Amino acid sequence: MDSQQWDLMYSEKELVWSAKPNMFLPPIVATLPVGSALDLASGEGRNAIWLANEGWDVTAVDFSAVGIEKAKRVAGDTEVNWVVADVTTYQPGRTFDLVMIVYVHIDDAGMEALFSYAVDAVTPGGTFIGVGHALRNLTEGVGGPPVPEIHWTEERMSPLVAGLDIVSVGEVLRPVAGSEVEAIDLLVHATKPQ
Ligand SMILES: C[S@@+](CC[C@H](N)C(=O)[O-])C[C@H]1O[C@@H](n2cnc3c(N)ncnc32)[C@H](O)[C@@H]1O
Questions:
Q1: Considering the entire predicted model, what is its pTM?
Q2: Which atom of ligand 1 is nearest to the CA of 106?
Q3: Which element (helix H / strand E) includes 158?
Q4: Which CATH architecture has domain 3-11+20-191?
Q5: Closest CA to 55 of 27, 79, 39, 31
Q6: What is the pLDDT of residues 55-80, one digit of tens each?
Q7: pLDDT band with cut points at 50, 70 and 90 for residue 16
Q8: Distance from the CA of 190 to the center of ligand 1, in angstroms?
Q9: Domain boundaries along the sequence of the chain
């Protein structure tokens, strides 16, 4: 989907995604000292706003101007550095203690462009968290885009985070409201060597 399609989606409903952070973030973030964070493809800002409320200095980037405007409204007095930009070409120009990419499903060229600078943007000793729909979610889970090639697999994701130390990479289950079937995500947790 391009930015206009995302703009349309974000303008149709009040909140497309949940107001709560993705459930896999808080347990990892709880182990980290508060610092700076970069949220790439931040959508309506649920993860960025939650982190900022936890005391983090957050930069959040998305190419949907409508999504970013909505995120600003939801954030209210919570300060986040909101940036409207394409994450396949964005250059942060600095490093962050935490870099996260949550539910970005784009083609291989886009993922390579995104991850090449995202990995560089992790401060030595810092953390990377990635969450995406696992390929198996298409047939055995719920939600996500109907295109197999853009799903996350261990084989697809591991080379993208080469240079980081993998803490864990693998499938995780996520309950979905109103569904008897759980979603199957792929969680990547890695750290940058000192
Ligand atoms: C499924 S939403 C996830 C939003 C957020 N990470 C979350 O977990 O709530 C995917 C987001 O990726 C953004 N996106 C997709 N491709 C992008 C690109 N090339 N540049 C910037 N944002 C992009 C969309 O605008 C959308 O907000």
A1: 0.97
A2: 16
A3: helix 154-160
A4: 3-Layer(aba) Sandwich (3.40)
A5: 79
A6: 999 999 999 999 999 999 999 999 99
A7: low
A8: 21
A9: 3-11+20-191
